[in-house]
Specification:
The structure holds 2 protein chains of 2 kinds.
Chain A lengths: L8 H12 L25 E3 L2 E3 L5 E4 L9 H13 L6 E4 L3 H6 L19 H23 L6 E4 L2 E4 L5 E3 H9 L47 E7 L6 E5 L10 E7 L3 E6 L2 H10 L2 E4 L8 H11 L6 E6 L2 H6 L3 E9 L11 E7 L2 E7 L3 H12 L6 E6 L13 H10 L7 E4 L2 H6 L7 E9 L5 E10 L3 H4 L31 E7 L14 H18 L4 H7 L5 H14 L10 E9 L2 E12 L4 E12 L6 H21 L4 E2 L2 E2 L17 E6 L16 H16 L14 E2 L1
Helix pairs in contact in A: 2-4, 4-5, 9-10, 13-17, 16-17
Chain B lengths: L1 E5 L2 E5 L7 H9 L17 E4 L2 E4 L12 E3 L12 H8 L9 H14 L5 H7 L9 H12 L2
Parallel strand pairs in B: 1-5
Antiparallel strand pairs in B: 1-2, 3-4, 3-5
Helix pairs in contact in B: 2-5
The chains are: A alpha+beta, B alpha+beta.
Chain lengths: 730, 149
């Protein structure tokens, strides 16, 4: 690392501004003027920022995105290797640190691993990294032989001079290649030539996940380390008033009790259990503040008032929806509501920090290394060149560990009070459940208009509820409007609605309670897909039409949306009789650039009080599918995440605080309830931006099942989770 | 002091007898493959074997494990040979984030020790571990492939 240039203050300011703005900066591989190669961590010269090749031909591919189970590291490596022409069996990966990246003008681009963007937003420049490295390696071999590079080819890390048949390996020419100038104008392969992209390559990171060897953030051990655990004020907006450390300082293993900022207190001990035992015994007085008066009922009333409020931000509109409703021969109206949800990754929040007056180092499972870095810089008070963050693979993220780095700030603030001693801050599950960044709460009133011939003539969809951006990235609001609230409902783009509806109005009355909102896997498509896709079923029913036929008539201008819907309808056998007692439902949406659809087969038991989900057919068109095996895993897993929420999950507010504390009150489905998921991966190619796969499918899980439940029972459920209606998951 | 026998090795550790076995394993002995997920016996990430039975180590005090044979994920392989479920997990790319998989594997290893070819219904009854990534479909396929071969 001492071979890297020092971090300039200016470079950090650029990085921090980009983070604060939530932007992902486009960038090009900078031409390297100097000929001295940049060395990797173990002193091996890098070919470029993405590729290091060791003398034994081992290829180290560096990736800025974070692995949290979604398989992004394997997919990104496939993209590099496709162009690099190296031996897949010799590929390993590593993370550059955010400090290195800042020092090199963000050469690895955006670290943010959310929004299903790991692959879709970096495929071009990582492929270029591979292609550029291959060109340099071939050139180095050609130079050594004194032949034109155009006479040489590379395959599986071996370079061959075609006319003479001479060969050499990447490892042998890597040092020479690293000294070459970076070539310009390297061309990427045509997708038709791909041999690794699109293949179901095995993951690169499985072995240590089955034998206990893999170290997660919660497992980290440093010499002399203490473990801390923390209690933040249970009411957001409240403060820490006082605590009585003397009551617990005599307990075994307890080393220190410290305030953390203005709102929290932590106990440091030699082990987690001793820290937790002492924290539980610590007398703490909170100043809970005004928010302690807020309850779920008050929030619900406030959102309900927004359903008819005169002012609202318009997210999508054409024609004159209000006139169409006024002149309708028939109107259909429904109100839906979606609750707060906690991400609940299996690994509770944690970060480890070592602070001295000259240096602050942080080890953290993070979806965004640069955001962790910015938090560490701010909390440490040190200049950026004295701060470093080391990323650790995550035990689940789901959006909790990206834009929000509260645990990093806390760990650094604690470590500052224990200079020279590494401190691992590990939250309890209870702290995690009660200090989340919750899926925003939302209500929705939908009114559809029909003419006398049962043609849909208008739709007004009024959202009322919480904005994520207003809380998290207010600078990204569009004149006050949060465009993310309308995900899946946009007129065009990555979140385009799949229907052409004459006289459409979709608007949002923004109401922001004190509960902190966040990006929960899928984000706002989760509720929007239920609202839209269940209501379309209601409209189809009102019009006396088949739900598939009714949708398809509105999808003439949306062929890719329709194609995934058709694919699941055909595979599930829509229009043909289902097995006795089995009922079907459909849903589709475009999100994060991908087109997704689901068809569900369910039966009901116990007089409608239990739903058994037998079978799901799910289609995904991400335009380009880098690793279909990993896409299938993301898709089947999406139904666990989505159906757990539908059946079991909500976070409720009482006296200003979240009531749920652990998995006993915030349940998650088990293997017994897992339906058979048949995944159809149907990349359609083309020139639109690639789609992501980590999130889109979550949103179609719930409406497909809800529409099937209506087909089975004639009953529409419009508030969630289903447990509140006495409906269990069989 | 407490004497624990883990993966065939004896450890004398300075731990209070009411400490959950999970934390003795992780913090006193240093085997971190056994994970903390909930602390209340709901999620199963901390599953280990005590005398061959799958138990949630967050809910067993150290005092109750004295003199018993404890096996953790680090001891599931025998003489360096992976358990057939571990092999199947690799072959089928079962783990996503992997955090819950130690507990998942230990729970299933205890099941297949008693029920060598478990049916879907037997898996469903015995396995109540939480996986938030949602690997259940791959877990089921891998168990069947490993046990029906």
């Amino acid at each position: 690392m001492n071979s890297l240039p020092p971090i300039s203050r200016r470079a950090f300011v650029i990085g921090a501004a980009a983070l604060g703005g939530g932007l992902s900066l486009g960038f090009a591989l900078p031409a390297r003027a100097q000929t001295a190669p940049v060395l990797s961590k173990d002193g091996i010269p890098e070919i470029n920022a993405w590729v290091v090749i060791k003398p034994d031909d081992t290829v180290v591919i560096r990736m800025a995105r974070s692995e949290m189970g979604q398989g992004t590291i394997t997919g990104l490596a496939q993209l590099v290797v496709e162009e690099l022409h190296c031996d897949w069996a010799k590929v390993t990966t590593e993370y550059p640190t955010p400090g290195q990246s800042v020092a090199r003008k963000r050469i690895w681009g955006d670290f943010s691993t959310g929004g299903s963007r790991g692959i879709r937003a970096s495929h071009e420049y990582v492929r270029m990294g591979g292609a550029t490295a291959r060109t340099m390696l071939i050139q180095a071999a050609a130079n050594g032989w004194g032949v034109p590079a155009s006479e040489c080819v590379a395959a599986k890390s071996v370079i061959t001079h075609k006319p003479s048949g001479r060969t050499t390996s990447y490892g042998k020419v890597a040092l020479d290649a690293a000294k070459l100038p970076v070539p310009e104008g390297v061309k990427l392969k045509d997708p038709k030539e791909w041999t690794i992209i699109g293949k179901p390559m095995k993951r690169l990171d499985t072995a240590d996940k089955v034998n206990g060897k893999k170290i997660y953030g919660a497992d980290l051990k440093l010499p002399g380390m203490l473990t801390a655990t923390i209690k933040d004020c249970p009411v957001t907006g409240g403060k820490l008033k006082s605590f009585d450390a003397a009551k617990v300082m005599g307990l075994k293993g307890v080393k220190k009790v410290v305030p953390v900022g203005e709102t929290a207190v932590a106990v440091l001990a030699d082990t987690f259990w001793r820290a937790k035992t002492a924290l539980d015994a610590l007398p703490i007085v909170w100043d809970e503040g005004e928010n302690a008066k807020v309850s779920s009922a008050a929030i619900a009333d406030w959102l309900k008032a927004g359903l008819d409020a005169p002012e609202a931000f318009v997210g999508n509109a054409n024609g004159d929806a209000k006139a169409a409703l006024a002149g309708a021969a028939k109107k259909v109206e429904a109100v839906y509501a979606y609750p707060y949800l906690n991400h609940a990754p299996m690994e509770p929040m944690n970060a480890t920090a070592l602070y001295t007056p000259d240096k602050c180092e942080v080890w953290v499972p993070t979806q965004n290394g640069e955001a962790s870095f910015a938090a560490a810089v701010a909390a440490s008070g040190l200049p950026a060149d004295k701060v470093e963050v080391y990323k650790i693979d995550l035990g689940g993220g789901f959006g909790r560990r990206g834009g929000f780095q509260d645990y990093v700030s806390q760990a650094v603030l604690i470590a500052k009070q224990m200079p020279g001693t590494p401190v691992k801050l590990l939250w309890t599950r209870e702290e995690d459940m009660q200090h989340g960044r919750y899926h925003p709460i939302m209500q929705c009133k939908l009114v559809g208009a029909f003419d006398a011939q049962n043609n849909l003539t208008g739709l007004h969809m009024r959202l009322s509820g919480q904005s994520i951006l207003a809380s998290v990235f207010p600078q990204n609001l569009d004149k006050g409007k949060d465009n993310l609230t309308f995900q899946g409902l946009w007129p065009a783009g990555d979140f385009a609605i799949g229907y052409t509806i004459p006289n459409l109005l979709i608007d949002h009355s923004m109401r922001n309670p004190h509960i902190l909102p966040g990006f929960w896997r899928g984000v706002n498509i989760n509720q929007n897909c239920i609202f839209l896709e269940c209501f379309l079923d209601e409209l189809a029913q009102a019009a006396g039409q088949d739900p598939l036929d009714f949708r398809r008539k509105l999808m003439g201008n949306h062929p890719k949306h329709r194609a995934v819907l058709d694919a699941v309808a055909e595979r599930i056998g829509w229009g043909k009789p289902a097995a006795k007692g089995v009922h079907r439902g459909l849903a589709q949406m475009k999100a994060f650039g991908s087109y997704v659809a689901a068809a569900a087969e369910i039966s009901v038991e116990d007089g409608g009080k239990a739903i058994r989900v037998h079978r799901i057919v799910a289609a995904t068109d991400p335009l380009y599918a880098v690793n279909p095996a990993q896409i299938e895993r993301q898709v089947s897993g999406s139904f666990v995440y989505g159906l757990s929420a539908l059946f079991y999950q909500e976070c409720t507010v009482k006296d200003g605080r979240i009531e749920q504390a652990n998995f006993d009150s915030f349940n998650s489905m088990r293997i017994a309830q897992m339906p058979k998921v048949e995944s159809i991966v149907m990349p359609s190619g083309g020139t639109e931006p690639w789609g992501g796969v980590g999130e889109p499918t979550i949103c179609v899980a719930a409406p497909a099942v809800l529409n099937a439940y209506f087909a089975a029972t004639g009953r529409r459920i419009r508030t969630f989770p289903l447990k509140n209606h006495g409906i269990a998951m069989a | 002091m407490a004497r624990l026998t883990i993966n065939g090795k004896t450890h004398d550790i300075d731990v209070e007898p009411d400490t959950p076995l999970l934390w003795a394993i992780r913090d006193h002995i240093g085997l971190t493959g056994t994970k903390y997920g909930c602390g209340i016996g709901e999620c199963g990430s901390c599953t280990v074997h005590i005398d061959g039975q799958a138990v949630r180590s967050c809910s067993v005090p150290v005092g109750a494990a004295l003199g018993k044979a404890i096996t953790t994920i680090e001891g599931l392989a025998v003489n360096g040979v992976l358990h057939k479920l571990q092999q199947a997990w690799i072959q089928h790319d079962v783990p996503q984030c992997g955090y819950c998989q130690s507990g998942m594997l230990m729970a299933l290893a205890a099941l297949v020790a008693k029920t060598p070819r478990p049916t879907d219904a037997e898996i469903d009854k015995a396995i109540t571990n939480i996986c938030r990534c949602g690997t259940f479909q791959q877990v089921r396929d891998a168990v069947h492939n490993a046990t029906r071969a």
